[in-house]
Structure formats: structure tokens, C-alpha cells
Amino acid sequence: MPDNFTKEGIDMLKDNLDLCIKKPKYYKAFVAIENKKVVGFISYGDTYRRGEVIKLEWIVVSKKYQKIGIASRLVKKVEDKIKKYNARIFWVDTLDESIKYEPYVAANKFYKKMGFKKEVVLRGFYNSNTHQAIYVKRYRK
Ligand SMILES: CC(C)(COP(=O)(O)OP(=O)(O)OC[C@H]1O[C@@H](n2cnc3c(N)ncnc32)[C@H](O)[C@@H]1OP(=O)(O)O)[C@@H](O)C(=O)NCCC(=O)NCCS
């Protein structure tokens, strides 16, 4: 799956997966496996109180396996788990779709399809023309 990321992205991803190993109480991941090969994964972590506000950290599906519902199933798997622990908010940040860069337009569409609402656009986050979108799903008040 490295074709999805820059070198800096891969370093950040490794740090995140390290946290899943070192602090499994707060950071977790699921993988999708096909023919004994990992073809997708999702990682997430507690960001406020224990289990109440959860951030989706990374979600990736290998190009060959995209658009057949794997990422949707990974998100649902996490939601089933976090709802049991009484999650109130599930959120994720990504490059805002205004950048018109196909992979991130797809990511924005994906989050919307999964029922996330874009609640914040943090303008100039990445650079003056590249904004960050924060998508949120709320389960209760
Ligand atoms: C975003 C990503 C995880 C989606 O994975 P996927 O397994 O292909 O997604 P699904 O098949 O579950 O798609 C669910 C819905 O998302 C939307 N979607 C997914 N990929 C899309 C694309 N390329 N273009 C437009 N909409 C898309 C569609 O609405 C789709 O529903 P539909 O099939 O009924 O139309 C995948 O494209 C990916 O790994 N991208 C690179 C990494 C990335 O951008 N991660 C997220 C941002 S950090």
C-alpha cells in the first residue's frame, strides 16, 4: 500500500501503528485480509476521556481492492466496537475536497457516504491553498 503515501506520510503512519502496539489501551487497528495478505487497514485512538471521543487516524485500502466496500466494512467494524464503549463522537481529519486532488476528493466522498458531516474547515492548515476538513459523526449528546 505504500503507493498511497509520501515518505513523510509513511513515517507518520509507522508512528501511529507503533502506538497501537505500545499503547493498545488507547490506539487500535483492524486489518482486512485477502489470501493471507493485508489489503486494507484502519487505525483509531481515544482523544478525550476513555472511549468517549474517538479519532479515526488512518484508513487505507490497496488500489486493487478499492471500491468493493472494504473501507466501509472497516469503518463499521470500528463503529460497532466504539459504540459498545459508549462513544459520543467519532471524528477524522483530511485534506479538504476544495483542493480538487482526486484521492482526497474520493476520501471526502467516502467520509460523507459513511455518514460523517463536515463540521470544520481549518483554512491554510497544510499551506495557504490547502485546507483541512474535520468530519464528525455524533452518536449521542
Ligand atoms: C478512501 C478509501 C479508504 C476508500 O476505500 P474503499 O474500500 O474503496 O471504499 P468503499 O468501497 O467502502 O466505498 C464506500 C463509498 O465511498 C465512496 N468512494 C470510495 N471511493 C471513491 C472514489 N474513488 N471516488 C468517489 N467516491 C468514492 C463511494 O460513495 C462509495 O460508495 P459506493 O460504492 O456505493 O459508491 C480508499 O480510496 C483509499 O485507500 N484511498 C487512499 C488513502 C486515503 O485517502 N485514505 C483516507 C484519507 S487519509
For this entry, give a set of tags.
141 residues; alpha+beta; Aminopeptidase; six-stranded mixed β-sheet; 30% helix; binds coenzyme A
Give your account of this protein's structure.
It is a single chain. The protein has 141 residues and is α+β, with helices and mostly antiparallel strands. It folds into two domains: 1-87, Aminopeptidase; 93-141, no CATH class. The protein is 30% helix and 40% strand. It contains three helices and six strands. It has helices at 7-22, 70-84, 102-113; strands at residues 27-34, 37-48, 53-61, 89-95, 117-127, 130-138. Strands 1-2-3-4-6-5 form a six-stranded mixed beta sheet, sandwiched between helices. A hairpin with a 4-residue loop joins strand 2 and strand 3 (53-61). Bound molecules: coenzyme A (COA). Coenzyme A binds next to strand 3, helix 2 and helix 3.
List the helices and strands and how they pair.
Blueprint: H1 7-22, E1 27-34, E2 37-48, E3 53-61, H2 70-84, E4 89-95, H3 102-113, E5 117-127, E6 130-138
Parallel strand pairs: 3-4
Antiparallel strand pairs: 1-2, 2-3, 4-6, 5-6
The chain binds coenzyme A.
Output the radius of gyration: 15 Å
Low-confidence runs (pLDDT<50, min 5 residues)?
A: none
Overall 3D form: globular
Strand order of the largest sheet: 1-2-3-4-6-5
The helical percent reads: 25-40%
Which ligands occur here? coenzyme A
Give me the number of helical elements: 3
CATH architecture call of the largest domain: 3-Layer(aba) Sandwich
Order of helices and strands: HEEEHEHEE
Structural category:
alpha+beta
